[in-house]
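**User:** Everyone, produce a chain:

**Assistant:**
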Amino acid sequence: MPAINVRPDIYWIGVNDRTTDLFEGMWPITKEGVSYNSYLLTDEKNVIIDLSKSLKSDDYFDQINQVTDIKKIDYVVLNHMEPDHTGVLHTLRRIAPGLTILASQKAVKMLEDYYQITENIRVVKDGEELKIGKKTLQFFQVPFVHWPETIVTYETSQKILFSCDAFGGYGAFRGSIFDDEYEDFSFYVDESLRYFVNIVSKFTRPVLNAIEKLKGIDIKIIAPSHGLVWRKNPQFIVDAYRKWAEYATSPAEAGITIVYGSMYGNTEEMMNAVAQGITGQGVPVRIFDAARTHSSYILPHLWTQQGVMVGAPTYETSLFPPVAEVLQMAALKRIRNKKAAMFGSYGWSKGALTEMKKIIEPLNWTMDMSYEFPGGLSREKLEKGKQFGADFARLIKNGR
C-alpha cells in the first residue's frame, strides 16, 4: 500500500500482512491477516512512531521515501519493543544513522537485549512533551498494555493518540485504513475482541488504568499499531475495550459457550441434545469442537459469555486432551468467574470431571451440575441431556 495521509503532514506507512499464518507464532490469522501500523510525521523534525515487522521491509521503506528522504528521519518513537513493532529498526538505523530513539526507561535494556543498541537513545518521561516544529508530541506511560515498557504518544495539534497495542485488532485492511470508510466494520470489531482476549486480556487492570489516565485528553483520532484507524468515532473502540476489560471482574453476557470433544460420536450426539435444551430456553449458545477449532476463536466467547458448558469424554482416566487444552488456555488468559457445567461419556472409568475441576478451581468458576454417562446413548440418556441443558440455561438466564 502507498503512504496514506491521516492528517496534514501525518502519514500511515504501515504493512498490510495477508501472508503470515500465526500472530506471535501461535494465534491463527491465515484468513484474517493483520496490519502493522507505523506513522510518519513531517515537520522541522521528522518522526516515525512505531515501526514494523521485518516482513515487506522494501515496501515499508519505499513508503517513507514517498513522503520524505528516509535519511532525514530525526526521531523514532518506540511505544513498544515487540519485534512486530521494531523489526526494521536495524535497517532503518543503517540508512539514517543519526536518528534518535525515543522510548521509556524500561525499553532501554530491551533495546540492548533485542538489538544490541545502546547509543542515540533518549528516555521520555510520563507526560513529557517534545516540540518538533508546529507539532508537539506528548508521551504517557501505560505499563503492561501489554508489556511493562509500553508508552503511548499523543500529537497535540491534531489530537491524535498513537495508542500502540491498546485499541488494536487483527484483520488486514480491505481497501481502507479508516473506520468511516467501511459501511460495516463489524469484522474489525470481532477481530479487535479476539485480539484483546488473545493478547491483552491478562492485563485488564492496566487497560482500565490506561483508559482512566487518558480520559482527560481530547482525542480526535486513535491510531493503534494493529487494525483500523478510528477517526469518525474513536470513543467507540475505547468503550469496547473498557467493556471487555470489565468482564474480568463483573458478570458477562447471559449466554453459553459449549466447548466439546468427542472420540466416537457419543459425546457429540449428547452435545446436540444439550444444545437443544439450552436453545429451548431462549439463551444464546455458541458451539465449538475443541479438536477442530483453535482456542484463539473460542476464548472470546468464553470471555464474553457467562456460561460455559463443557462436553468431553473421559480419556485414559482424564479429560479429553483437546478440551483440556482450551480450558488450560482459558486459565492462562485468566478467564475467571464463570458458571460451568460438564457432560460426557466414559467407558471403563470416569475421570474427566475430576480433571476439569482441577483446571477451573483457581479460576473461581462455579460448577454444581454435571452429567456423565457410561458407554453409548439411548433415548432416555438423550432426553436427560436435553433436560440438563435446559436446567443450566435457566440458571444462566436467571443469573444464579
Remarks:
- The CA atoms of residues 128 and 281 lie 56 Å apart.
- The domain at 254-394 is CATH 3.40.50.360 (Rossmann fold).
